[in-house]
Specification:
about 70 residues; alpha+beta; three-stranded antiparallel sheet; 3 helices; 3 strands; about 45% helix; about 20% strand
Length: about 70
């Protein structure tokens, strides 16, 4: 099994949904991790962003390119 590493920070749920859809379609292994913490009233989200994408390092450039295209539109 490949080791997953943090690839990039997501700003909101909309970006996460779009990126997840494209990565799944392209069969790129990934995980979406949110910074949601209701116990602390969202302070983690303010500090670290909405969440992040994790994946094997060999997909980093491809994921960053996809993310750039998604956020450009």
């Amino acid at each position: 099994m490949e080791t997953y590493e943090k690839i990039l920070v997501l700003n909101n749920e909309f970006e996460a949904g779009l990126l997840e859809e494209v990565l799944t379609d392209r069969k790129i292994p990934h995980g979406i991790v949110t910074s949601d913490d209701t116990a602390l009233g969202g302070i983690m989200e303010m500090e670290f962003g909405w969440g992040y994408v994790e994946a094997p390092v060999k997909y980093k450039e491809e994921i960053e390119k996809i993310f750039e295209e998604i956020t450009k539109e």
